[in-house]
Design goal:
Elements: H1 5-20, E1 29-31, E2 37-39, H2 40-56, E3 61-64, H3 69-77, E4 83-90, H4 92-97, E5 103-110, E6 113-121, E7 126-131, E8 136-138, E9 141-143, E10 156-160, H5 166-174, E11 180-182, H6 187-195, E12 201-207, H7 209-221, E13 225-227, E14 242-247, H8 250-261
Helix pairs in contact: 1-2, 6-7
Length: 262
Amino acid sequence: MLPDLKQLHELLVLASKQELLPRFAEVTRAEKPDGSIVTSADIAMQKNIQENLNRLWPEYNFLGEEMTEDEQQSLLNDSNMGLWCLDPLDGTSNFAAGIPFFAVSLALIINGEVVLGLVYDPVRDECFSAQKGQGAWLNTTRLTAREFGLPLNRSIAVVDFKRLPAPLAAKLVKHPPYYSQRNFGSVALEWCWLAAGRFQVYLHGRQRVWDYAAGSLILAEAGGHAATLEDDTPCGMEFKPCSVVVALDSSLFDAWRGWLKT
């Protein structure tokens, strides 16, 4: 039997109250070797959640964003028996700057597939969750697929230009196929906000497994569609980063992917 989503939700809420919210906008930040930001809140959240997961479900291994790359690679190579995958603070730059858009993202991977996913936004007290084959939820409201009926040129897109190939980024700037564009700075929440219908299409050039594991399951269980820029298959649960092309609406997904391939 899989862990209970309600119990996991409560664990993330408590950890956020203990470790994240008291440090919001009052932390010092440092740079990791890859140039990304890490704060004391990232470290404290990972430690808190790892200890509780190990206590409650010792049968599963644990992978956190703040581990070394060698540790992460080794754990992903041996995930058949079950592996927690945690981003303790997705949107660290927002968090450190005082921008209230960040989340904690937790997924359970078994045999290379995500079977549980939760993304908790402590500012709005919104928990997005999903179990494989059982649907997706925003708190107690089920997320269901629907057709927006919008053409691509009337849609709102979330696009992270920084991680896109330069020619594609320039093309999007010069000839945007959508009506309006945003970039919020928290990958996990971007997947979930799309699953909730808060915008229509999404593009990101480089995500890691802890960024997308939970959000991709939530999107899929809400009826959404995803692929990489390179081919028609979605990201796998692998160490190497991947690009994502996403939409909730099937017709918009086809139009968005088709434009990106031209």
